[in-house]
Amino acid sequence: MWKGLLSFGLVNVPVSLVKATRSKNISFNQLRESDFSKIQYKKVAAVDGAEVPMSEIVKGYEVSPDRYVVISKNDLEAIAPKSSRIIEISDFVKIEEIDNRFFDTSYYLLPDQGAGKAYSLLLKSMAEENVVGIARFVLREKEYLAAIRPTGQAITLTTMRFADEVVEVREIENDLPANIELTDKEMKMAKTLINSLVTNFDAARYKNEYHAQVLAMIQAKAEKEEIVTKPVDTSSSFVNLMAALEASMATIKQNESKKKPPRKPKSKTA
């Protein structure tokens, strides 16, 4: 989808950019209930409801109620970032210094023919130093900030949000709980529960169950099978905190006991 150079210092690595993720969203069409005819969308003027052809539509930015600055295609092209085939790393930083909120979409950077050694040099050096490269690049006429980092045997590029695109905690602090008193017993129980659930992260363990259920429902409806859904009990949204912690621990202990193999009976001696 994109070919260019990954540059750090005076080293240039010819690379190709390919997506590292895939969308698993299920798309639905909107239909008229009476005859299942597809719904079409038309662009109409708010003032009179008349349909407006694309040739008559312009971009406008509202500066005050019903007052717009009209922006033409030429206006945007004049200030568009210049197309470039270079991803230039300007800095290296420690991965733990980057807040996860800044990360957006991930891609693989694949070495082009003859670039294997330079690619491997950058990959191994970043991995051993535990650093991430920070770069800028242009994709589809838009400038992006990006994190260049090693992922196994590949180099990945993750587009990043700029600082003013991240909502700071102070902006929502009025909606957060304040002056909450927690007892030592509650803290001890919560920590015990958390520690009992600590494990190594394995993405394969986490399945998109809702996605599978929607596909199964669609398949069943297509085959004219009856679908029965179990209602969700929302009658007790707020429960006693300690009771919930104790019940969680009891469930975990019960599950652990089921996993233990049964004891072998002691052999009787003659």
Automatic annotation (TrEMBL):
Keywords: DNA damage, DNA recombination, DNA repair, DNA-binding. One of its GO terms (molecular function) is double-stranded DNA binding. Residues 260-270 have a biased composition (Basic residues). Transmembrane segments: none annotated. Residues 49-177 form the Ku domain. The keyword DNA-binding applies. Homodimer. Interacts with LigD. With LigD forms a non-homologous end joining (NHEJ) DNA repair enzyme, which repairs dsDNA breaks with reduced fidelity. Binds linear dsDNA with 5'- and 3'- overhangs but not closed circular dsDNA nor ssDNA. Recruits and stimulates the ligase activity of LigD. This is Non-homologous end joining protein Ku. It comes from Pelosinus propionicus DSM 13327. The gene is ku.
